[in-house]
Specification:
The chain contains nine helices and no strands. α2 packs antiparallel against α3. 74% of the residues lie in helices and 0% in strands. It is mainly alpha-helical. It holds the Pfam family TPR_5.
C-alpha cells in the first residue's frame, strides 16, 4: 500500500513537472526520494530521471547506474537503461551508450531503442549507420514501401 501511494505521488510529480523551475523540481523529488531507503532502486531511478529531465545529465548518471546495480523490475530496468544511454550520448560517451542500447532487449519500448541508437550513431559521426537504423525501424510501420525502405537501409550499410 505504501509503495502504491508513493508511486502515485511520483506519478503526480511527473504530471506536473515544470522544467522552468529546476530548484523546485529537485526539492520536490528530493522529498519523495528521501521517503525511501537510500539504496531503493526505484527512488534512485527517479532521482536520476529528474536530473536528466532538467538537463543535468552529469548528475543523472550516478543514480541511474546505482538503480541498475541495485536491481529493478524488467520494464523499469529497460526504461532506465534507455535513459542512461540517452544521457551518455548527451555527454559524448557514445561507445558506452551504444553498448547499452545494443544489449537492450525491450519489446515493450517499441522502436524507442532504435531511435536512441540512431541518435547516438549520428552523434558519433556515423551518419549512414544512423540513417540505416532509423529507416529499418520505420520500414516496419509503413503500409507501403516498407520493403524498399528496408532495402535502402541495408544499402547504406553495404
Amino acid at each position: 500500500m505504501a509503495q502504491n501511494d508513493w508511486q502515485a505521488r511520483v506519478d503526480a510529480f511527473w504530471n506536473d513537472f515544470d522544467d522552468s523551475d529546476p530548484e523546485r523540481m529537485l526539492s520536490l523529488m528530493r522529498g519523495l526520494v528521501d521517503e525511501r531507503d537510500a539504496d531503493d532502486p526505484v527512488a534512485l531511478a527517479e532521482w536520476g530521471g529528474v536530473h536528466d529531465a532538467l538537463g543535468l545529465e552529469e548528475d543523472a548518471v550516478g543514480p541511474y547506474r546505482s538503480a541498475l546495480a541495485a536491481g529493478l523490475e524488467p520494464e523499469l530496468e529497460h526504461q532506465v537503461m534507455l535513459q542512461l544511454a540517452s544521457t551518455l550520448r548527451n555527454l559524448g560517451e557514445h561507445a558506452e551508450a551504444l553498448d547499452l542500447l545494443e544489449r537492450l532487449d525491450a519489446p515493450e519500448l517499441g522502436d524507442a531503442p532504435a531511435v536512441f541508437r540512431a541518435l547516438t550513431l549520428h552523434s558519433a559521426g556515423r551518419a549512414d549507420e544512423a540513417l540505416s537504423v532509423a529507416l529499418t525501424a520505420l520500414a516496419a510501420h509503413l503500409p507501403r514501401y516498407g520493403r524498399a525502405a528496408a532495402a535502402y537501409a541495408a544499402d547504406l550499410m553495404a
